[in-house]
Amino acid sequence: MLIDLHTHGKLSKQSDFSLDYFHEMMQEAKLNGVDAVALTEHFNTKNYEAIYEGLDSAFPYNGHYYEAHGVRVFPGIEVDIRETGHILLIGKKEEILAIRAELEPYTSKENFIPFAQLLKLADTYHLLKIGGHPFRDSTPLHQLNRELLIQLDALDLNAKDLYKQGVEVNRQKLEPFAEELGLPIVAGSDTHQCLQYGSVVNRFNEPIHTVEDLKQAIKSRRYEIEISAALDIKVKASVMLKKVLKQLKGEPPSREELEEVYTS
């Protein structure tokens, strides 16, 4: 079972959630062999709750995941922390929406939630906690308190960083760090649109029906990470398309997006 544990359902934080766009995303994910995704949308994206209102109107939800064009969609959220860094939280819809509501006072950059406080909050729910792209230049995690980092369930091997830094360079940073912390590594495409699906996935050796299934399989390391031979072209094409689509919507590209386009 192929699962992508870091994905987005919107083009950008400023974009409105579009069901037509999401239908296309899930259809493309399926065509790339992806069986399930964690929808880890940014917690301070525009109208976060509208995402789940849209999903509820279009897809069945069984208490653990949505079924969208043959792809299981596990609810999630990507949270900025005060110290710099992103934490992915994955769980049941009601838990994700509840934690988003509790994070409302912390959505502005000058008032992001401290890491320790987020961990404490997350532990009041039954969530999978993943440290997002620990060695990304703009939002690193590796510099944080080790006693806090070891409370995570896993670290993110991120397609964008594999592309920008090079596969071997990024893995040579991440793998010793994860081993030092005693944490497993899981893969996420970090896609905001369809071309990036399949760039990097987790192949689980058993069916995954719940987030608890995910947590146990990750903890026991009953999965393998697969990096596509086409990762570079998938990510570069994705970044370029995202830049064009944002321009058509009147949204300027970020500095990170401009840098990624010209990384070989």
UniProtKB/TrEMBL annotation:
What's this protein's name? PHP domain-containing protein
Output the Pfam families linked to this UniProt entry.
PHP (PF02811), PHP_C (PF13263)
Q: Which superkingdom is the protein from?
A: Bacteria
InterPro entries per the UniProt record, alphabetical: PHP_dom, PHP_domain, Pol/histidinol_Pase-like
Q: Which SUPFAM superfamilies match?
A: PHP domain-like
* Biological source species: Paenibacillus gallinarum
Question: What are the PHP domain coordinates in residue numbering?
Answer: 4-94
